[in-house]
Write a structure and sequence with these properties.
Elements lengths: L14 H19 L3 H4 L6 H12 L1 H10 L10 H16 L4 H14 L6 H13 L13 H10 L4 H7 L6 E5 L6 H10 L4 E3 L5 E4 L16 E3 L7 H5 L6 E5 L5 H9 L5 E6 L2 H14 L4 E4 L13 E7 L14 H4 L2 H20 L1 E11 L8 H10 L3 E4 L7 E2 L4 E3 L9 E8 L5
Parallel strand pairs: 5-6, 5-8, 6-7, 8-9
Antiparallel strand pairs: 1-3, 1-4, 2-3, 9-13, 10-13, 11-12, 12-13
Length: about 425
Amino acid sequence: MATPRSSPRARNLSAPESDRAAAARALNQIVTKHRTSDQVIASVATPLGRDMLFGSLRYYCVLAAIISDHLERPLRQKDQDLWCLMIVGAYQLRHSRVPDHAAIHATVQACSALGKRWARSLVNAVLRAVQRDTERSFDSADYYPHWFSARVAQDYPDQAADVLAACLERAPQTLRINVCRVDPDEFAQRLAETGIASRPGFIPSQRVLTEPLPIEQLPGYDSGLVSVQDAGAGFAPQLLNPQPGQRLLDTCAAPGGKLFHLLEACPELAAATAVEIAPARTQHLVDEAARLGHTARVITADATTLEWWDGELFDLVLVDAPCSGSGTLRRHPEMKLLRSAADIASYQSLQQALLQSAWQTLRPGGSLLYCTCSLFVAENDDVISEFLAQTSDAQMQAISLPTGRATKYGWQLLPTEPRTDGFYYALLNKAATKD
């Protein structure tokens, strides 16, 4: 058996070298295997390594263009980890406070952690060329694939540059306080006593942290006092307005933030049903319900069909539809790399199928809230427009929220408001049957 290449642990690599190697490996998984940051983040153990991973993703398109200009030929497929290591190094040179000489040295040494000592001179030469390449400037659109920036320009002709620039920022960490277990003011005081600085969100049960923290450091997290949820995703109870005795359905329910927020807003709901197609995500819903102290019927099923449904109608339906995730780039910058223009039409078809199925489960006089974490009109107003054209008993309801803007059929939140991701809501009522 051949002797394995030396590992970071075996060679006792310094922390800077191992951080860069870990970030490069994780980035390689995203770029070549199309995994998400959530799927790879556990392999990057330190705050420094995670900063390098997310920073490299945030600025990937420009960094890739610069590095390509300084490579004589593309790297082989089996050496894409080196490509990703150079992306990490270029990120440090252009966007971090790491001194240039330290960034270059540690990145070059990290070649050994990847088992590719032979590439040190190549990586050193490319990064030094990047260091000297200071003349070019880039527009906000350059940080995205062309299809993405073009669609933003089409949908937001007067705000495109601001929207694209905002998507490059880091998102705040917003907490949703479980009002069934603790008073929001009491929890805010508990944060302060723990030395965690925060400010109010848009609603009483929200706090926005000044600095993000791992969830295990949040007081009362294990006992269900608090959850992490984007501020823009926290308007579902205000819009659906659940009342005691009503029956609620949440399709595509995982990870469950809106479902559990609705249960916290109205614990007297008669029943709550959550449908989720992925068994692992279904288990997450069960675990979250137990942590927070909520009761919901959780079903593993495809919500585009009604095979799971027992025929009993719901008063309220939430369709939190799968989408491009274009509004979440501050948290998931990899989405601009993992999605393509062709994906939008596929999501539209899925979103229509979910709406059509969910509508059949809604009683006359009931309300359906459609939402996505997308910036794109194609996944938002266009979907609702088509649904209304095909559904004679669907009536659009006007929405007004403390941030964002009205659209023809709903309400769009934008990341230009620092506290929110890009998010869309549309509220529909089902016409009551005539006697």
